[in-house]
Amino acid sequence: MVLSTTLQSALLRHQRSIDAALRSTLQKVAGATGIAALDAYYGQMQYHLGWVDANLILTRSNPGKLLRPTLLLLAYEAAGAWELAKDATSPESYLQRALSAAVAIELTHNFTLIHDDIEDGDTERRHRPTLWNIWGVPQAINTGDGMFGLARFALWGVLENGVEGDIAAHLGSVLDRTVLEIAEGQYLDISFEQRQDISVSMYLDMIGRKTAALMRCAAEMGAMLGTRDQSTIQRLASFGQAIGIAFQVRDDVLGVWATSEELGKTQAGDIYRRKKSLPILHALEHANSQDLQILQTIYSQETPMDSEQATQVLAILARTQTQAYCRTFLQQQCQTAYEALDAVSDPTTNTSLSSRAIGDMKVMIQFVETAAY
Ligand SMILES: CC(C)=CCC/C(C)=C/COP(=O)(O)OP(=O)(O)O
């Protein structure tokens, strides 16, 4: 994903704190094992996170976007971390309350990616060999499991950082429920590959679980750490859900219509891969009988799609006005996200900290929205 400079600066603000908290969480657990034979186990986690190379040698780190934990910290600020910030001893010390939850979110995300790469048989992620590709499937499954355990373990760090017991327990239940939802989404996604009867609404439900649930969870957990006001928590959770769906649909739109320069990969790549993403599902629902037959024939073949077939598919997408549908849908999600944030903004009580966080979250929406024009 190529990020705009405004989005980059919004993401950058918390990147260093999240990165440091992630590293110290992993180091604490790895350092406590007492046996050198386990260094390579935690080394695999570090490899997946981009900190070391395949020989477990420190590498010039290219930290991921840390989008989800940043979302958690922004929701925390937006929801009322300012109350704590007022008494904070240093400008950033109020963040401490939320950092363990931010780490838990990022580790949860990465454990699902480790397992996803195995399930999809993907040999590369972020331009590097995947974990299973280097260390084999059994060890990669185990490292993914360990990272899930570490994510849950990390969350309880909130108890050492002033978070009340009832809130900590609730955070745990929201995170666990979300992992279940992500796995439900993944189940649906995999099962859809074998089916020809997937509707747009089934697809939207699936991405709501697989992709948006963790963004909603991040925003909801951040809000829960910042306030006890249920309507604020719900609004930020809705924002997370809407932007999560929008991120996925943006990906779907770019996967079909972005130019190669915009995408950095093959144009219409999702068509060539026969990916059942939103555009194709919309076209299947709206094509006339002749076009439907062409689509079904092309999509049921096992042989690689050639450029003539891809052109035919693109022509059907044009006849079904699928691009306009996707763009309108994307705009609607962005609108929902903006409205949720506006409902959180209260000019009479908001401080500069929460206004800045809301501003940064709006930058995220603007970034997603650009694919709608
Ligand atoms: C329970 C599990 C394993 C869930 C996987 C969740 C997930 C978001 C996978 C990545 O999705 P993707 O396949 O659409 O993205 P990518 O292109 O990054 O693989």
TrEMBL record:
<dbReference type="GO" id="GO:0046872">
    <property type="term" value="F:metal ion binding"/>
</dbReference>
<dbReference type="InterPro" id="IPR008949">
    <property type="entry name" value="Isoprenoid_synthase_dom_sf"/>
</dbReference>
<dbReference type="InterPro" id="IPR000092">
    <property type="entry name" value="Polyprenyl_synt"/>
</dbReference>
<keyword id="KW-0479">Metal-binding</keyword>
<keyword id="KW-0460">Magnesium</keyword>
<dbReference type="Pfam" id="PF00348">
    <property type="entry name" value="polyprenyl_synt"/>
</dbReference>
<keyword id="KW-0808">Transferase</keyword>
<dbReference type="GO" id="GO:0004659">
    <property type="term" value="F:prenyltransferase activity"/>
</dbReference>
<comment type="similarity">
    <text>Belongs to the FPP/GGPP synthase family.</text>
</comment>
<protein>
    <submittedName>
        <fullName>Polyprenyl synthetase</fullName>
    </submittedName>
</protein>
<dbReference type="InterPro" id="IPR033749">
    <property type="entry name" value="Polyprenyl_synt_CS"/>
</dbReference>
<dbReference type="GO" id="GO:0008299">
    <property type="term" value="P:isoprenoid biosynthetic process"/>
</dbReference>
